[in-house]
Amino acid sequence: MKKEYPELESLSDFIISDVPKVIVDDVTISDHAEYVVDIKRLKAQGLQVNDIVGMRDGKIVITGRNLNISHIAVIDRRGEILQQKNICYSCSGHGTTHCCYLSEFKVIAVFDDEIITWDVRDGSCKKKKMRDTISCWVLGMKAISVTTDPDNNHIFVGTNSKYVYELDDQLTYRHTITLPLTLLYGNMLVMNRAVTLSVHKRNLLVLDHNGKKAYAVTTGEANGNVIYAFKKPDCVVRNVWRNDWRPVDVCTDMNMFIYMLWNNTVKCVLTQYSQDGRKLLNTKSLDMICNLLTTLKEDGEDKLVIESSDTQRLYIYGLNMT
User: Under the phi-then-psi rule, with left for phi > 0, alpha for psi from -120 to 50, and beta for the rest, what region is 58?
Assistant: First the structure.
């Protein structure tokens, strides 16, 4: 009989790339949010929202912290809290909790030096110290981002260093990717903080918040190479020029179009890129400060979810295929 919750259930039986795909030439973001999810119940608990991830049944997972306690919760489209749990404790009171989709009922979360597999159905979780998985993990290193490759469910953990670690879906270490040297402001600097990661066609999308740039980086070798840099938003707001836009979050839809949030001190914009990532297709101005976005599935269709720290709400936009 199949175990209900093994150490980590293998996902190798289902590979997304095996499913036939319909070729889509264009995806249009709806002009206005189709609906809004209020997350004030979580905010009322003092929860600082660090990350969001959409599931395939329309539910949304939210991670964050309250002082030195790390939280994870599942909500529905009405904002009702379906599951909530304290998952980690940090003596320092610092650090953020980030999460990503792993399988239909599971998400991966990282906090400081721990990695957690969480089941959204019953709130059960498995925790592991990074040093128990990654032998080269050193004292003082922290996990600050996490993403998965949908083709093989491999997990990529970004750190507060120039290293990104690749694990399989059983949390077994595979290899280390060293983020490349990149030309910033005329000086050769190390891209040393992978603020946000995503995977797109086996390449890492790396948002360098401090460098105000976003890149696609190879994953197949120990030294990652920059394939291309994403074009910045070309709009000017209150004398804030293009070079002042910082990338803050990124996601992809099921047709491999790329969506990215950029912000500055006064404004936030959403950009949409082509399936190869090299062309900026659309720029959408947002009348609020936003830091997080993800996609979720509703009735087999992708929706784009944007979190606003200003309004304490999630805004769900339609993605219309043509």
Answer: left
Q: Which residues contact 113 (CB under 8 A, 6 or more apart)?
A: 129, 130, 131, 137, 141, 142, 143
CA–CA dist 26, 56 (Å, integer): 22
d(CA 226, CA 217): 5
Domain with 299 in it: 246-322
Residue owning tokens 């006064």: 266
Tokens coding 141: 């290193």
What is the 3 state secondary structure string of 236-290?
CECCECHHHCEEEEEEECCCCCEEEEEECCCCEEEEEECCCCCCEEEEEEECCCE
Contact 111, 143 (CB under 8 A): yes
In this structure, is residue 297 part of a structural domain? yes
Residue at 85 is within a domain: no
pLDDT digits (tens, 9 = 90+) for 210-233: 888 899 999 988 888 999 999 998
Backbone φ, ψ for residue 303 (5° rounding): -125, 150
How many C-alpha atoms does 227 have within 13 Å on its Cβ side? Answer: 15
Asked if 298 and 307 touch (Cβ cutoff 8 Å), the reply is: no
Confirm if 88 and 97 have CB atoms less than 8 A apart: yes
> Is 0.70 surpassed by the pTM of this model?
yes
**17 is a domain residue:** no
Question: Is residue 9 pLDDT above 50, yes or no?
Answer: no
Higher per-residue confidence, 197 vs 87:
197
Give residues with Cβ within 8 angstroms of 229, minimum separation 6.
Answer: 213, 214, 215
Domain count, the chain: 1
Distance CA 209, CA 291 (A): 12
304 within some domain: yes
